[in-house]
Amino acid sequence: MKTYSYKALNQNHQSVEGELHADNDAQVDLYFRERKLMPLRVVEQKAHPYKILLNRAYVWWNGKKIRQELITFTRQFAAAYAAGMQIAKILDLLATQAQTTIFRDTIKKISSEIKQGKGLVDTFSAHPDLFDNTYRALLTTGEMTGNLDMVMNYSAGLLEKKA
Q1: Which tens digit of pLDDT belongs to each residue from 59-85?
Q2: Contact yes or no for 2/21 (Cβ under 8 A)
Q3: Do strands 2-9 and 15-22 pair parallel, antiparallel, or not at all (unpaired)?
């Protein structure tokens, strides 16, 4: 998944800047059409290869610890969402409870992107090292059906079986 920064005009002809995550140009076009934005500038952000490699190595080396933290995060997210908390508040709370630095930083980044108005699945998709395809697909299903808490509990169960 690629990350793009953009500058666009909204329906009120006001300048809007932000980031989006997409696999191809068709998804980028769809992003702007859905939000009724007129793109002025779209630039693909290149992550430093060393940083990507370092993150992957860290996740691999600490895999068991991070998997357990992901399971705990998913269960707590489901419980807080079922209780009626807002997603950004849930993420802020769970980021303070994270034990690994990479997980804490990732959750904080996701939270800030949610506060900027980005979609839940889009923000999680930007971190494929921590959230695999199955996790993101289940997250999409939960968001689309309105059963996010049930789907997150199911995801935690799958993660436990996989571990």
Answers
A1: 666 666 778 888 899 999 999 999 999
A2: yes
A3: antiparallel
